[in-house]
Amino acid sequence: MCAAKIPYLKLDKDIERAIIAARASGKRSPYAFDDADVVRRLGKNHDRATITRPAFVRDIEKIINIPAYNRYADKTQVFSFVENDDICRRGLHVQLVSRISRGIGSLLGLNTDLIEAIALGHDLGHTPFGHAGERYLSENYERHTGHVFRHNIHSVRVMDHLFRRNISLQTLDGALCHNGEFAQQVLELGTIKTFDDLDAAVMRCTEDASQIKLLRPSTLEGCVVRVADMIAYIGKDRQDALDVGVIDSLDAFDSEYIGTVNSQIISNMTVDIVTNSFGKDHIAMSRAAFDDIVLAKKQNYQMIYSNEGTVSEFENIVQEMFEEMYEELLAQLLAGDESSPVFKHHVNVLDAKSQSLSREAYLSEDPNRIIADYISSMTDNYFMALYRHLFPTSTKRLFKREYCSDLS
After folding, report:
1. Every domain of the chain and the residues it spans
2. Strand, coil or helix: 193
3. CB-based burial of residue 99 (10 Å sphere; 0-12 exposed, 13-18 middle, 19+ buried)?
4. Tens digit of each residue's pLDDT (9 = 90 or more) over 215-239
5. From residue 363, how far is each of 37, 155, 158, 351, 354 by CA, in Å?
6. Which tens digit of pLDDT belongs to each residue from 109-152?
7. Among 26, 46, 98, 294, which residue's beta carbon has the most beta carbons within 10 A?
8. Strand partners, 284
9. Class of the 3-76+84-310 domain?
């Protein structure tokens, strides 16, 4: 159907009145996660909730002060090799997920502080060069260890192990289970209730990536973030593709229900999810919305990601660069070369900023794990600069479409 003919959906009047009444009385959903039930790995007095710093507000503040959070700003969302301050980077993406999921969660009467914490932390483990970078890093890591690297698993490691900020189980669960690549019409709650459950799930997914498909957030707040992750990137990636010239218009995209434009997708998906989830113990969308989301994701891959994606014509070069860098850094680490950037820029920095992970304890871990930690922490620009440092005579170079390239 032509996007111009697709209406903006409106909430059912009965649901709208129920939301207004609940807000007026201060009543929350019976399925909202209560701050009083927060679970942390360590029972530190400093982390106890107060009226000025409630449980999940603490998580939000911890997350935005983790050094890895700063690096969102120069990590690719989709377009790695275009200099354009108007297109989405990972830092904006997590804010968009936060905004959309908080909007949905507020209407459903859920815990919006928990939602924000999950949304802001869910991509902390992402690699440079987006999903292509994740794939290349995993190929090298798996070749050496038999285990896989996935950004959702690594987001948990960043928050719970590398920087050890005593983030809550509920926030970590939401980050682990956020993977919006696996669309579902109905999201039932998962079963992670303890840190033992979380640790076991992380291990299963590290050993077998297919286990990630089985993950379900164990709070409704986590379910909302997972759905909002898809909503946030589908329309925004199309908007960015227009800005960088990958597509000429949105006319080629089809829709029967949610629309093809970013603003309408957000609005209609919000209304649909609230309509199908209000007062329920799960998060759901209508069949029409689900079918449209599946179609939208498919068409984005066909018209945007497979056309341009993260690496475009540089794909083979980037893959080779990941392998060369991985092997060189691993050799330097195994040789104990303290002049290596893996020590100077990663191990020593982590020792200084982790607060509780000692240098000695960290260096006793699997060297491949350390290299994966280091490479995944890199921004796009840092990766390219480090490659030039490590391989100064290499002819492999990645060139961005610069701001003024269209003026010459």
Report:
1. 3-76+84-310, 313-390
2. coil
3. middle
4. 999 999 999 999 999 999 999 999 9
5. 35, 20, 16, 10, 14
6. 999 999 999 999 999 999 999 888 999 999 999 999 999 999 99
7. 98
8. 186
9. mainly alpha
